[in-house]
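TASK: fixed-backbone design
INPUT:
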């Protein structure tokens, strides 16, 4: 019996890889490249630290970069979404221990705590210990966020009810001591004075493993494009068909050699060529 060949999959980090750094929407050249991949029979998906709810309203739509019927991974891999069914394909909520750590943080050091609920289309929750910051929180996050009462009980109750898979904490200032406020066993990602927390063992590599399983793909028939430290687990995987680093030069700590290093502007045209050469993939 002839062995069934695994499907081909191209997976992309979102911010700074298929968008411009800090940009909101996917560039036109990347959209054309992804359309070429689809036409050649290569599936595409996204692995991002963004919450799913913050992708839905993006100009152009997530459906322009994720193949129909293919799940996508959000919140650093803690939520994998079946967009076609509008449901969570896999969901890894934070434990009561982690939620307790967040609720017990010294309030004089916290600017705000933010999280989305397990419900796929639920509004975000924002909590600040300072009542004087409520208007600023509303201005920053819009009227589609629940601005919680400032007492600790309101935060604890919302965390329990929302059952989040990722919590973001922003501190009032950027000091080395902030990291000492969190136990070392937490799965954290830091950016200046902001930290995001997900369940231990969850990252983009575990998410890509789940996406391969869902699509019938394998690492040896998968390419991945990323641009940041949270892409390291995937970019360093030895069985990937191709690793694409998108940036002027690789960041420290990513395993060499890369198959491909591209500037952000060159990615779209490279994908078009990849689609033409799909017999090599």
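OUTPUT:
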């Amino acid at each position: 019996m002839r062995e069934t060949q695994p499907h081909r999959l191209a997976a992309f980090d979102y911010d700074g890889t298929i968008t411009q750094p800090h940009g909101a929407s996917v560039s036109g050249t990347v959209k054309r490249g992804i359309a070429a991949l689809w036409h050649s029979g290569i599936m595409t998906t996204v692995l991002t630290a963004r919450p799913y709810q913050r992708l839905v309203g993006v100009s152009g739509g997530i459906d322009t970069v994720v193949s129909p019927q293919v799940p996508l991974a959000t919140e650093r891999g803690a939520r994998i979404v079946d967009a076609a069914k509008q449901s969570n394909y896999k969901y890894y909520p934070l434990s009561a221990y982690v939620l307790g750590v967040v609720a017990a943080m010294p309030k004089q050091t916290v600017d705000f705590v933010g999280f989305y609920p397990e419900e796929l289309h639920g509004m975000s929750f924002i909590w600040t210990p300072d009542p004087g910051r409520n208007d600023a929180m509303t201005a920053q996050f819009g009227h589609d966020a629940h601005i919680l009462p400032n007492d600790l009980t309101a935060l604890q109750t919302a965390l329990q009810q929302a059952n989040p898979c990722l919590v973001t904490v922003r501190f009032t200032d950027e000091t080395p001591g902030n990291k000492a406020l969190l136990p070392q066993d937490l799965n954290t990602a830091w950016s200046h004075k902001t930290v995001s927390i997900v369940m231990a063992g969850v990252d983009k590599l575990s998410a890509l493993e789940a996406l391969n399983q869902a699509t019938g793909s394998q690492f040896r028939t998968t390419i991945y494009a990323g641009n940041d430290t949270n892409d390291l687990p995937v970019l360093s995987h030895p069985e990937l068909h191709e690793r694409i680093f998108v940036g002027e030069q690789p960041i420290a700590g990513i395993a060499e050699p890369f198959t491909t290093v591209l500037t952000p502007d060159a990615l779209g045209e490279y994908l078009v060529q990849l689609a033409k050469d799909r017999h090599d993939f």
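COMMENT: The chain has a mean pLDDT of 85.
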